Amino acid sequence: MSSHGLTPLRMLTPQKDWPTRLGSELLGRTAVESTVGDVLRWGSYDDSGLADSTTPGGCAPWSQLVNGRVPDFPAAQRDLPVLQQALAHAPADSHILVSTHVPDIAEEWMVVVHRGRAIAAQGYCIHQPVGSRNIISVFDGAAFTEDNIEHAMQLAEAGAKRLDIDSVVINIAFRSDSRALVLEALPTWCTPLYAYPAQATGQLLQAIADCSLPDEFNAAEASAGGDETDSQVFQPDSWMKRCYASRFAN
């Protein structure tokens, strides 16, 4: 929109420090959010604040952009030298999420929470065998444990409440022992339509429309002492801006 001389939309998004806000109780693992500049100064994962830098079996932590995606840095498990090499030419102020590995994920669910209530929930993929990276998605006809839906919705609502956000998609993982945890908090407006029932799909589309924030939202946040770290207005990561700049150039 900027490239056409129009005012950009202001879109609701989880705060950059959403892992810290959720805490280990909901995450089910240790996770930290840091800038590229700080990551490049770590001598070991102990410097990151991760309570346990590897899980039993020596699995490396996962790392990804907190707020967006770039082709050169997909979510992946990386030991620290590999992570630092991958970030060597990234903008120093890009925000990176590093989290310890969860070894025995069986199912993943996507739950849309809007105005405090789960309005849509659907299994996203199953891991076969449990804990493997071989997945079967809902689009491949994966069969999910129907008893998980209520637990997924309750956990997602708890996550949205902890984040104090009006609309969010929560990615829920179920482990082989049926314990559940939050994998990710995502903007409602940039997640795919899964196999939700018709009514839930309609509610999701309305929730997406509601994620476009009026100018008054910025003014209210500024008066409350908000800054970029606390902001619920989407700001593309500086790495995304650099990666996709030519696409949106005048």
How much helix, percentage-wise, in residues? 25-40%
Mean pLDDT over all positions: 88
N-to-C span: 10 Å
Tally of separate helices: 7
Q: Which value, in Å, is the CA radius of gyration? A: 18 Å
Proportion of strand residues: 15-25%
Structural class of the secondary elements?
alpha+beta
Low-confidence stretches: 222-229
Strand order, largest beta sheet:
7-6-5-8-9
How many beta-strand elements?
9
User: Any idea what the shape is?
Assistant: globular
User: How can the largest sheet be summarized?
Assistant: 5 strands, antiparallel
Write the element-wise H/E pattern from the N-terminal end onward: HEHEEHEEEEHEEHHH
Polypeptide structure, described:
The chain is globular. It has seven helices and nine strands; from the N terminus they run H-E-H-E-E-H-E-E-E-E-H-E-E-H-H-H. The protein has helices at residues 18-27, 36-39, 80-86, 148-163, 198-210, 215-223, 238-244, and strands at 31-35, 62-65, 76-77, 95-99, 105-114, 117-127, 135-137, 167-175, 180-186. It has a five-stranded antiparallel beta sheet, sandwiched between helices.
